[in-house]
């Protein structure tokens, strides 16, 4: 773990319980030890001294340090699929340095999926703690009617195989497991295909595309 996330990092006194307390006990921290804590809102680390450690931990701010700004790139649109698949994929997208993920319900999305953005936030915070990312991946839900077809490129087997170097105003759209409907293919004219003879699952495709775009 690179640091501990706490939404109130920067305040003079922090109290920890629950998972955060379990983490520092698992690391065998003791009273007097210094913990690095970040709030995922700024490029700054806060260092706290452990003052009490029992059923709760009390931390007192010792000093703060400005961090070098991290650059996150790219925006991906992903059609909603099984929520467990989304949850398993978020950490990888966050660790690859993707800037923004937009979820939409497409025609072949699972319509009964309930998206728990609070849980998504916890998954991303845990990922940031592990990989050292200072600000988490931005994630939102939009209606597919809000998506601009002129600047959106479908990842589709009907598309042309070409490099995934998109311009700044272009956004890649990854479909659900069932792919895109004919109406969606008609609406979004720009299409691209991966150079693979195999059919990729939706979450495999999005990880592969982000890796090719950013690394």
UniProtKB/TrEMBL annotation:
Major location (coarse): cytoplasm
Catalytic activities: uridine(1498) in 16S rRNA + S-adenosyl-L-methionine = N(3)-methyluridine(1498) in 16S rRNA + S-adenosyl-L-homocysteine + H(+)
Keyword Signal in record:
no
GO molecular function terms listed in the Swiss-Prot or TrEMBL record: rRNA (uridine-N3-)-methyltransferase activity
Extract the InterPro entries matched here.
Alpha/beta_knot_MTases (IPR029028), RsmE (IPR006700), RsmE_MTase_dom (IPR046886), tRNA_m1G_MTases_N (IPR029026)
Which key words tag this protein in UniProt? Cytoplasm, Methyltransferase, rRNA processing, S-adenosyl-L-methionine, Transferase
**Which principal EC class is assigned to this enzyme?**
transferase
EC number(s) in its UniProt entry? 2.1.1.193
Q: Where in the cell is it found?
A: Cytoplasm
GO cellular component term, pick one: cytoplasm
Q: Which family does it belong to?
A: Belongs to the RNA methyltransferase RsmE family.
Q: Supply the NCBIfam families for this chain.
A: RsmE family RNA methyltransferase
Question: Per its database record, what is this protein's job?
Answer: Specifically methylates the N3 position of the uracil ring of uridine 1498 (m3U1498) in 16S rRNA. Acts on the fully assembled 30S ribosomal subunit.
Could you identify this protein by its name?
Ribosomal RNA small subunit methyltransferase E
The organism encoding this protein is Candidatus Campylobacter infans
Q: Which gene encodes it?
A: rsmE
